[in-house]
Amino acid sequence: MTREPAKSMDAARPGRLRVLLCAFSLLAVNIAIAATLFGVEYSAYNGSIEGTFIAIPRIMAKYPGQWSWWPFWNVGMPFEVAYLPFSHWIVAAFTLLSGLSAARSFHIVTAAIYVSTAVCGFWMALELSRRLMVSWMAALAYSCVSISSLMVPIFASDGGGALNLRRLQVLVFYGESPHTTVLALLPVAIVCFSRALTTREVKWKILAGVLAACVVLSNAFGIVILPVALLCWLMAYPSRPWWNRPLTAAAIGIVSYAWISPWLSPAMIRAIRANSFTTAGDFRYKMASWVALAAIGAGFLLLWFAMRRYQASSHLQFFALFGYVPTAIVMTWSLWDIAVLPQPHRYELEMDLALLLAIVFAGAAILDRCPARVRIAVVAVAGAGLALQFVHSVVYARNLIRSVEPGQLSEYRIAKWLDQNRPGDRAFVSGSGSFLYNVFTDNPQVTGGHNQHTVNTFIPIVGYTVYTGMNAGDRDAEYSIFWLKAFGAHAISVPGPESSDYFKPFVHPHKFDGVLPLLWRDRGDAIYEVPSRSPSLAHVIPASAIVTRTPIHGLDIAPVEPYVAALDDPTYPLATFQWKGMSEAEIRATVDRGQVIAVQVTYEPGWEAWANGRRQTVRGDALGQMVIETECSGPCEISLRYTGGKERIVTRAMSL
C-alpha cells in the first residue's frame, strides 16, 4: 500500500525559517549564475528566436486591446495563433508599468523566471516528500547540472561541453523563454493539484486550475508535460475509490480549458496539429514510432509496478515515473532517431528537472539504509562537486550572456531602412532578420514568426522555393519573383556571404542582381524592390483569375498565373487598402460585373466585409488569401473587419 502525501513523511515538517533559508540560498545561487541576463537589452545571438518573443509584447503594449488579428507574420493570422500568450502578457504589462523598452523588459522578466525555477522545483519536492535537505540538494543540483548534456553527446557538443548548463544555453542562445516559463510554473501547478486532490479546500482547486491555465498558455510543451505529470502523480497517489482523484483532475482541466479557450482556440490547435510534425524536422509517425511508443508505455507500467511491489514511498514513485517519461522521449530520439512526439529533443529541459529529482531522491532512499558515516561522506563529496560545478556555471554564464548594440545588427539596419523608406509595405524579410524585424518596425512581412503556428500552410513552401530555388534552374529568380508578387511583397532582403545574418538561407544569394532594382546594399546585405503596379494589398481582378487549385509545390505556378497576371494588368482599376488598426481595414475600388477584390491577407472564418450598409461575401482562394465577392457596381468603399467568427463567440461564452 502506498501512503497519502501527508502521511509519507520521512521527517517531521521542517520549520518555516529553515525552508526560507533554503529557498533564498537557491535564489542566490541562480541569481549569481544568471545575473548578467538582467542587464541585457539586445542579445548578441541574432539567430535566437527571442526576437519574436520581444515583438509580440512590444506590439501588445503599443496597441492595447487590439488583440484580434495579427497582420505582421505569414500574411496575417488570428492574434492568438501568433503564440501562446502568458509570458507575453507579463512582458507587455512590465513594459507598460516600467516604461522600459520591450527588449529590456523581456530580458528582466525572462531572467526573473529563470532564477525562480529551481526554487519552484524545491517547493514541489519539499511539498511531496517533506525532506528538506534532500529537496534542497535536488534543487541545487538542478541549478548547476544538466543531466541531459551528460547523457546525450549532441547536447554536450552543442552546448560546448557536458558540464555547461544546457537550460541556460537553450534560453540565451536559442531564446526558449516561454519553455523556461513552463519549467517554473509546472512544479507550482503540481503542488496545487496535489493539495486540490488531497484536501477539500476549494481554493486549491481554483489555484490548480489557474496554474494549469498558465502552464498551457506558456508553451506547447506545457500542454503535453502537464498531463504527463498529473498522470504520474495519480499513479503514485491512488485514491479510494480509484476514480475519485482522476475525475476531480479532469473536471479542473475541463473548466480550465473552457476559461482559456479564447487563447488556446480551435484555430491555434489546428495550426499546431497541421505544422508540428514537419517543423524543425520530419516527425511524422512511422511504424517504428508506434513500436517505440508502445515500448515506452510498457516500460512506464513496469516501473510503476516495480515501485509499488517494493513499497517505494509515494513521492519517490512520482519522481521516478515523472523522470522516466521525458527521458524515454529524448533517449529514444537520441539513440535510435525515433520520434514518439514532435520535436522530441526539446523535452531535454523537462528531462533535466524530472530526472535529477528522481536520481537525488532515489539516492537518498538508498543512503537511508546506510550507516551515518557513509551518508556524511557521500553528502560531503556531492556538496564539494556541486560547489565546483556552481563556480563553473557562474563562469560559463558570464561568457555566454552577451549584449550587442542594435546598430551592429544587420537585422536592425534592414528593418530601419525599410521602415523609413517603405513604411507600411509588406516585405519578404530573410533569414534571422525575420525574427527581429518586428522588434524594430510595425511593417508586415510575408514570413516571420513560428512555423508551427502558420495558418497559411503554403507560406513555408514559398519560403523554401525562394531560398533554395530547388529544380528551378535558370528560372530561379523568375519563380521567386512570381511568388513574391502573389503574396504582396514589395521588397525582399537578401543576406549575402559577407552578411552577419545568422542563417544566410539563400542558396543563390545573387540571383536577383540585374533582375530586380537594387534599393540598398550594406555589409553584405541587400534589399531589392519587387516591382508591382500598386503598393496596395487589395486588387480588382476578374473572377476567372481566382486561384482554385492549390499548387503542388513551388514550381507549380500554372494555377496561379492568371491571378498574378491580373495583378499587373492595367485594364483593371486600382484599389486602395489601408489598415485602420490591427484587425480592421478600409478598401476603396471601382468594381464592375464579373470582377472581385482579391486581398493579399490570409483568409480565416471571421473576416467580414461591409459596403453601403450591406454585408459582402468573403471567402478564401486556393492560396489561402481573401476574396471579396462584392455586390458593388462602380465606386465602392468596403469596411473589412476580423471578428473571429463563430469560434470566438463560442470560446468567449465558454470562458465566461
Task: Report what the structure shows.
The protein is an alpha+beta fold and 656 residues long. Helices cover 53% and strands 11% of the residues. It contains 24 helices and 13 strands. The chain has an 8-stranded antiparallel beta sheet, covered by helices on one side. Helix 1 runs antiparallel to helix 5 (102-129) and helix 10 packs parallel to helix 12. The longest helix is centred in the middle third of the chain and has 29 residues, at 372-400. It is globular.
Low-confidence parts: 1-11
- Based on DSSP secondary structure assignment, what is the total number of beta strands? 13
Largest sheet: 8 strands, antiparallel
Number of helices: 24
Short structural description:
53% of the residues lie in helices and 11% in strands. It is built from 24 helices and 13 strands.
What's the layout of helices and strands?
Layout (H helix, E strand, L loop, with lengths): L15 H19 L15 H13 L6 E2 L6 E2 H4 L3 H13 L3 H28 L2 H13 L2 H5 L1 H6 L7 H9 L2 H22 L3 H15 L3 H17 L7 H17 L5 H10 L11 H23 L4 H23 L11 H20 L4 H29 L9 H12 L11 H8 L18 H10 L7 H11 L4 E5 L22 E5 L2 E5 L8 E5 L18 H7 L8 E4 L4 E8 L3 E8 L4 E5 L2 E7 L4 E5 L4 E9 L2 H11 L1
Antiparallel strand pairs: 1-2, 3-5, 4-5, 6-9, 7-8, 8-13, 9-12, 10-11, 10-13, 11-12
